Amino acid sequence: MTALKLLSRTKLYWGLIAIFLIGVLGSPMSSKGNNIFLSYGNLLDVLRQVSTTGLIATGMTAVIITGGIDLSVGSLMAICSVVCAMLLTVPGVTPGVVLGVPTVALVALCIGFVVTRFIFQNLAKSRAGADLVREIRLDGVRGLVTPAVVGVVLCSLSLWFLLPQIEPKFGVLGVLLVAPCVGLLFGALNGFIIVAGRLQPFIVTLAMMVTALGIARLTAGQNNAVLPVYTGSNATADFEILRSLVFGVIPMPGLFFLGAILIYGAVLRFTPFGRYVYAIGGNEEAARLSGIAAGRVKIATYAISGLLAGIAAVLYVAQYRQGKPDAGAGLELDAIAAVVIGGTSLMGGRGSLIGTFCGVLIFGLLSNILQLHNINSNLQLVLKGMIIIGTVLVQERNAGDLLAYLRLPGGQTAHKETAAAKRPSQETPSLNLGGNKNETT
Amino acid sequence: MKRRDMLKLAAMTAALLTTTALLTTGNAYAQDKKWKIGFSQVTTIEPWRAQFNKDILAEAAKHPEVELIITDGEDKTEKQVADVENLIRQEVDALLVSPKESAGLTGVVQQAIDAKIPVFVLDRNVDTKDYTQFVGGDNALIGRAAGEYAVELLGGKGKAAGNVVEIWGGMGTQPAHDRHDGFHEFTDKEPGIKYLLDQQSGDWKQDQAYNLMANALKSNEKIDLVYGHNDPMAYGAYLAAKDVGREKDIKFIGIDGLPNEGVQMVNKGELTATFTYVTPGAEGLRQAIKFLNGEKVEKTITLPTEKITKENAAQVLKDNGL
C-alpha cells in the first residue's frame, strides 16, 4: 500500500528509469559486442547535447512556476552567442563591444546598488525586531549614498577588467562575464515590462524574441551569417577548456548544467525567494497582499532566465565553434517541453528543478535512442510529440482520472477527489507558504 | 488508490516490454550487409536537398552490399552534430557529411577522423584537411558558364549589348558571391552590357525576386536579360514580367537545374536556360564504396555543370522519369 503510494509519488524518476531501460535493452550492439547505448562515450554525448537546452530549461522552470512564460530565451541566446564569438575573434571596438561592455558596467552598477541596499534594509529590519509595524525607511546615507558608492566601485572594477581586453581579443573570463550580463539585462527588461506594464508574459517575451533576433542580426552584421571561432588560431586557446572533459570524466557543458540545477534548485527550495516564487505562482494577489514584493521577484526570475541563456550561449560557441544569429532558434519550445515533462504546471505554483532535470534527460535520451535506431527523422518528430503527451498525461493525471471519462464505475469518485486536490487553495486568504503549494513531485 | 496504482504500474510495464521488443526486432535485420555507411544530411524539406537524398538512395540501390543510414539535421547545427556523434557511436565504416556550416561541423568531423572513420565531405567544406575526400560543385565555374552563355545571348563576344538584371541569393552566403563573380568574369569584358540593379538580394526566394523585378520593370523601359542566382528567383522574375506582359522580350537564366524545378521551367519555355548544380549524392557514395574496397581516391572531386536549354530539357526530364 505505502509502497504503491511511493511509486506514484516518484513516477517521474520511474519514467526516466524506464526510458533508460528501453535504451539499454533495445540498444544495438557494436561490432565488438558492446552495448552502444550504454557506452560511456554515448552517455557523455547525451549529457553534452542536452546541456544547452538544460540551462535554458533551468531558468524557464522558475519563470513558469511564477505563472509566466519566457519565449525570448532562444533569441537571447543568439545575441549572446554573436557577442561572445565577436569578442573572442575580432580585436578592437566592434558592435559586440559596443553592446557588451556598457551592459556589464550597467549591470555591475545596478547589482552593487541593489544588493547593498538590500543588506541595509534587512539589518534595519532585524534591529527593529518583532515590533515592526511600518515599512522600514532607510536614511540617506544607508539608503542611497553607500549603495551608489558600492555600485560605482563594482562598475569601475568590471571596466578595469574588461577595457584592456578590447584591443587584443577577449579571454575566456571576459566572455563568461559579458555574455551572461547581456542576457541578464534583456531578461530583466522582459520582467520590467511585464511588471510595470501589467502585460501578459506571453506577448511581452514574444515581442522580445523578435526584437532580440533583430539585434542579434544587426550585431553580427549584414555579411556574417556565421562567426567562426577557432581556438588557437583566431581566438584564445583557453577557450578549449569549455569544450573539454573535466578530469576526463564529465564534459564542461554538462558540469555547468548540473551546477545550475543544484544552485538554483537549492535557492528555490530553501530560501525565502524560492518560497515567494511558488507563492506568486499559486496566487499572485494573495502573495502581494501578504507583503511579498511580487514585481521584484518576477523581474528576478526573468533576469535569471536571461542570465542562464547567456551562459548557455558561451557553451554553445565553445561546443559548435561558432556564434550566429540563428543559434537557439526554437530552443524555447524544447525547453518548455522539458519543463512540462518534468511535472511543472504551466498554470504556475507547482513544479521543481529536479523534475526539470529529469525532463531534460528524458527528452535527450529519447532523441538519442530514436537516432541510434535510425528511425526516419519525420517519424521521430511524431514519436517525440506523442511521448510528450504521454509523459505529461502520466505526470498530471491518474489512471482513475482518465477512466472517469469512460464512465467506468469507481472512476467518478476518483475524478472528483483529484479535482478537489488539484484546485489551488484560492479561497483561503491565509498564505500557506511552506505547505501544499510546493508539491515537489 | 490501490487499484489506480496497479493499473498504472501494469500499463507502464506493458509499454516498457513492447517498446523493448519492438526495438530488438528492429536490430535483427541489416546484419548481412558488408558495409555500413552513414550519411548526415542537413535537411530534407528543401528541393535541392530532397534531390540530393534521391540521388544517393538511387545509387545505394545499385549496391546491395551497402547499408545506408541517412540522418536529417532538421536544418539545425546542434541536431546535425548530434547525428554525426550518433553515427560515430554506431561505428559506421564510412561517414558522408554535407555540413550545414563549415565551422559548426568541423569539431565533430575531426572527432570522426580521430575515431579512424574515413570521412567524405559533400557540397560544403569543413575547416580541417584530414578528411578522406571532398566532393562538391563549383559555384564560380557555374557562374562562368552562365556568364558565357549570357554574352552569347546578347550578341556574342565583343558585340554583346543589353541591360542585365542580376538577382542575388543571400548576401552573406558564399555561393551567391561565387555565382556573381563567375558571371561577371565574362560580362564585365563587354562594354555594351549595362547592369540595372546594384546588388539586390532575393534571398534565394521566388516571392522576393518577384518584388525586385516588378520594381525594376517599372523603372526601366528596356530589360534584355535576367540572371537569377537560382531557378526559383529567375522564375519569380519571369512571373513579374509576365504580369506586365513583357516576358517575351526578356531572357531568363537560372541556376540549379533540378529536374522537378528548373528543367521543367526551361521545358515550358519560361526560363531560357538553367545550369545544373549537381548534387554530390551519387558520386560521394560511389567514391566511399570505392575507398572501402581498397582503391585510391582523389582528395577533391569537382562536379561539372551542364547547360540545360529548350533542346535538351525534355531528354533530361525523361532520364529522371518525369
Walk me through this protein's architecture.
- The complex is a heterodimer of chains A (441) and B (322).
- By secondary structure, chain A is mostly helical.
- Chain A has 17 helices and 4 strands.
- Chain A has helices at residues 2-9, 11-26, 40-65, 73-89, 95-128, 140-162, 172-196, 201-220, 252-270, 272-282, 284-289, 294-320, 331-341, 353-372, 377-396, 399-405, 411-422, and strands at 227-228, 245-246, 250-251, 322-323.
- In chain A, strand 2 and strand 3 (250-251) form a beta hairpin.
- In chain A, helix 4 crosses helix 5 and helix 4 (73-89) packs across helix 12.
- The longest helix of chain A has 34 residues, at 95-128.
- The two termini of chain A are 19 Å apart.
- Residues 411-441 of chain A have low confidence and may be disordered.
- By secondary structure, chain B is an alpha/beta fold.
- Chain B has helices at 2-28, 47-61, 77-89, 102-114, 139-153, 174-187, 206-219, 231-243, 262-267, 281-292, 310-319; strands at 35-41, 66-72, 94-97, 119-122, 133-137, 161-168, 192-195, 200-201, 225-228, 251-256, 273-276, 300-303, 307-308.
- At the A-B interface, helix 1, helix 2, helix 3, helix 12 and helix 14 of A face helix 1, strand 2, helix 3 and helix 4 of B.
